[in-house]
Every structure is written in C-alpha cells, then in structure tokens.
Amino acid sequence: MAHNRYRVLLESLDVDILDYIFQILRPARGLRSLSSTCRGLRTLSMPVLFKSCVVDVSRPITISHFLPSSLWPFVSSLHIVDKCSDIRAMRFQDDLHYTADPLMCGVLDGAFLKDALREMPRLRSVHVGFIWREDHGLGWSVIDAILSVSQIREFTIRSYLFCPREAPARRVVPLNPSAHLTTFNYARYASRSQLHADVQRAALGVVIGSLRSSLEHLRLPSDLSPISTFRSLSWTRLRELRLDGTYPSNIDAPLLDIISGMPRLRSLALLFALPRDMEKRPLWPPRCTLHFPFPELEELVVSYPDPEDYLYSHLPPSLRRLSFRCCPHHCLHVWEPACCMRWHSPILPASDLLRILSSIKAPVLQHLQLEYVADHADAALLGSIAASFPRLSSLEIHRFRQVDNSNVSIVRTSCPQ
After folding, report:
1. Sorted alphabetically, which Gene3D superfamilies does this protein's record hold (predicted)?
2. Lowest-pLDDT range, 125-139, 186-200, 399-413?
C-alpha cells in the first residue's frame, strides 16, 4: 500500500517539479538509480538523464558506432570526442587507417551526422574535438552538416585545423534559413603550427560572415581571425567576443578600430600570447583619432596592457568585470620555461599598472584581476584599488617578485567601510 501511495504522489507532481528534482539528482548520479525503479519514472527522467551525451569516436562513425537512436529524442547537448588512430599521422608519419589524407579526419562522416542530428529535436549544442596537440583537420562536409541543423544554437570546435585543405566559397554556404546559431566557439592551442593558415582564415571568414546576423557569442583563435571580415561587416547582435592565441600579425590598423562594428558588445576578451620577436601594441594608440565603440561593455579582459593605451581612459561606466593578466600566466614562464619558449612575458610592474588603473572610471566595477611584478608602487596600487572601486566584491591578484628575487613587503591597506 505504501508503495502505491508514493507512486500516486510522484505521478501527481507537476512535470516542472519532477524535472527540478531530476536535475538535482543528476550531478550526484542518483538519478540513474531512481530511473531504474519503475517504467514511469524511467520515461519521465529520460530527457534529463540523457540531456548531455558524450560519444567517443575511434572508427568511422555509423549507426552502430554512435549514440543509440532510441536516445536521440532526449539529447540537448552532444559532445563528439575524436579518438581516431590517425590523429598523430602528420607528426609520426604513421600508417593511415581511415583516411587517405594524413591531415584530414576520416572517422567523422558529414552525411551521417546531418541525418542523425536532424533527428534530435531537443538538440541545442554540439561540441567536436580531441585532446592532443596534433595537426588534424576537420573537413567542410562535417562543419556544413552541423551548421545546417536548424535547432542548434551553439557549435564548438576544439583542437582541429579548420578546413585546412580548401576553404568553402561564399556561394557554397547557403546556411539553413531557419538556423539561428547564437554561439560559435573555435578554440585550439596557441602553440600549434600555422599549417595552411591562410586557407583556415578564409574558411572562418566565410562561415562567421554567414552567421553574423544571429551570432551573439564568438570565440576564435586570434592568429586565424578573419580580420577583413570583422572590419567589413556589421555585427549587430554580437554580445561577447573572445580572441585568444598568438597576437594577430595580419593587421594594419588599431584592433579597436577593426572590431568597432559590434555596438552591442558586452564582453571583450583579448588574450594574446606574444612571440619573442614581437612587442605588445596598444589597442587604441596615442594620437589616434577613434571613438569608443562599445557603450554597453560590462567585461574586459586584456593581456599585457600598455600604460600608453588610450583605451582605458575611455572605458564606459557600465564596466563590471576587468582583468589585466599575462597569457599564458606568468607563473608558467617562471616555473616551466620550456613550455613557453616561443613567447615572452612582458609583465607590468606595479607602477605601470597604477597608471592604468588611475585612468579608469568604473563606479560599478565588481571583479578585478591583476597580474604584475612588485615594485616601489605596491602600496599606492593597492590603496588605489580600495579607493577607486568602492563596489568591488572580488579581487584576484597574481603578484610576483622582481627578477633579483628581492623581498616583497607585506602591504596592509584599509578598505573603506
């Protein structure tokens, strides 16, 4: 009797309440046990239980080497992890198993993915990638297959080379008119080679140019960013832009001017690693006539800020999060120099950082991240933080000693009550 009473109580709960309970149980893996108790709970919990699925692909993808089709109606987020044995073929000249081209992935099939993903009505996010630092390319047929699925809102590519053999022509990218992709992320290690960089850059330009009317969040490797596409088009919906990797060498104008066609941007992250033969450059050079193009900006992340940069004195009062850091973090240059041989780290001294912060007017700033080398201006720098940003609720400091390993005094700064 008790069992039947509890069953009635569960079945009488609103679907939204049940969904909330299932979401709470899912992180602790309790949902799997609950779903095995009866057929009714199993049916109700399926959309949560299989909301996010990971598929490891080590051989050519087919219906028998993919997610069971019975789960397709419940998948909202799909992660495809490439574990193909051909991934390292470019570096080791290994025998090929699934492709005739050592540069291209042979296990992902565009035609199969296009059909399979269209049968997943809840699908909103697709991630494809692998974990090694290898030269392994993703072909246009796979990218086109994913972009053509109308219900997808987020597409993430990790580690792959982007169409390294041939960029699609603009006339070949008539994306599904009902597609409304809002997030496009392409991330890869900054240390990777520049193999076929011009082709990859052209391919990225075609793709993101075709998505510009719906994109709200965009992340790209800085060294492959299609600068001409940024400059020539208007990005009226874009809210977040993140460029990370090696400092882009193919620009002939201030970067702030190049990305000025994004008037509704709220988050801007420019995390550039500096090759040893390159010095940092201001985003808004002195004596350069520009206007600040992001009146709604709330978050700014910049690596190796320049105290001569005019940008910081023109930041809007809406700014809530600010980060001045090294890329990669300076500790890697100190502790693992062999991993950072390609780059140098011109980390700012406290005195230069003080100059920058003194020029910023951000009355509602809530989070501040700083990375610097201690010098005579330590006390003044920390004091200025307390005085200039009264609404600060989060402060992260990476503070390094000078090269001579001199002692750094403990600074005590009283904050206003």
Report:
1. Ribonuclease Inhibitor (3.80.10.10)
2. 399-413
Q: Residue 223 in contact with residue 249, Cβ under 8 Å?
A: yes
CA angle at residue 175 from 111 to 57, to 5 degrees?
35
DSSP code per residue over 350-369:
HHHHHHHHHT---TT--EEE
pTM given for the model? 0.88
Residue with structure tokens 């009488």? Answer: 12
Residues with Cβ within 8 Å of residue 368, at least 6 apart in sequence: 321, 322, 323, 385, 389, 392, 394, 395, 396
Terminal-to-terminal C-alpha distance of the chain: 61
- Note if the bond before 328 is cis, omega within 30 degrees: yes
Q: Where are the domains of the chain?
A: 1-49, 50-238
- Does the domain at 50-238 match CATH 1.10.3470? Answer given as no
Dihedral sign from CA coordinates of 210, 212, 213, 219 = positive
**Interatomic CA distance for residues 209 and 218, integer angstroms:** 12
Residues 245 and 274 sit within 8 Å (Cβ to Cβ):
no
User: Which residues on adjacent β-strands are paired with residue 33?
Assistant: none
Over the stretch 257-269, which tens digit does the pLDDT of each residue have? 999 999 999 999 9
Listed in sequence order, the DSSP H helices in 62-150 are: 89-92, 110-118, 140-147
